[in-house]
Amino acid sequence: MNPNIRNENNPPGVRVAYIFGIFICLCSIFLSGFDDNPLKNKNNFNFQIHKDKNNLALDTVHHHLTSKNFIEVPIKNPNVKVVQNTIKIPIGVRDSNGSGTAFKIGNDSWITARHVVHGCQSIYLSDKAIKKIFIPPSSDLALLVSDSLNVDKFELSWFPSLNNEINDRKDLAVGDLGYSIGFPKGEPGEARLKFAGYVQMIQRGAYYLTEPVKMWVETQRRPRSLDQMGGISGGPIFNKQGSVVGVHVANSVRRGRAFSVDEYAISWLVMAASKRNQLTRENPKTMISDKNWSNIADAWRNNGRIKKVFCTI
Fold first, then answer.
1. CA triplet 232, 250, 199: central angle to 5 degrees?
2. Which uninterrupted H or E stretch holds 267?
3. Residues 193, 78 contacting (CB under 8 angstroms)
4. Which of 61, 167, 172, 287 is positioned for an S-S bond with 195, CB 3.0–4.6 A?
5. CB under 8 Å to 286, separation ≥6 — which residues?
6. How far is CA 255 from CA 15, 44, 215, 221, in A?
7. All domains of the chain, ordered by start, with CATH?
8. Using CA atoms, how far apart are residues 190 and 268, in angstroms rounded to an integer?
9. Digit-coded pLDDT (tens) for 142-193
10. 69-125 pLDDT, tens digit each
């Protein structure tokens, strides 16, 4: 195991396999590139927006947060130190409309990826206009504010609070399953994943970010004919207990690797952008397994807890 990554759940026997797996994945990524851009092959995507005539968008206001917006909790996860293995993702200047995925995490808060909404003049959550969004200073995330969508919110597997010591967090173990749900190519789709550890993600171009992200090995896609994942960015990744453990932000071009911002960064953004803490932990949750994951994905999209994000310029 990389000595810079703390994960007490991983037994010593998996350390060699972990290092070898990281090496192989990174080599294949550098050779194949990334498929994280929601604008890639945009002519094949479904960009149709059914605008609510009573709630047409003016320009969406982008609020850029700083570490001073929420000082009670460190902006970066202290349990993940500087990760030596890196992936580099170019962020181009937006020159066309696009789409991605978002999910509800608070009373009026929806999470998506920053690169999905970067450079957008107006943003829609399905047919609802978004008037303001919040951007954290050090993560590929964005929080969309909408109180017009009355659906149940999801819960994070862990979040920091004054009554919850940061060091008490138990991270995923290598090999743990994850289920990514969203709208790849603008259409319903999902992926079954296995956790493979942390790498450092560097985004350069239209903006600059460096952050540790979770790396996943992709084992299955649905529908099986899905040939690319652009558009699933911003979608949630769930553990078997039905809790959010990440936000999908990148995929390699060749099937096999996915990357996600973890729940620590999500929770900091929600608490920094909200005047009140909207994060809760309740039971029971919906258990996810290989037998029901596709049906649950359809149900959560159909009931509006996971929605498509539209960007117009």
1. 145
2. helix 263-273
3. no
4. 172
5. 242, 296
6. 24, 19, 13, 9
7. 1-313 (2.40.10.10)
8. 26
9. 999 987 778 889 998 887 765 555 656 778 899 999 999 999 989 999 999 9
10. 887 777 887 778 767 789 999 998 998 899 999 999 988 889 999 999 999 999 999
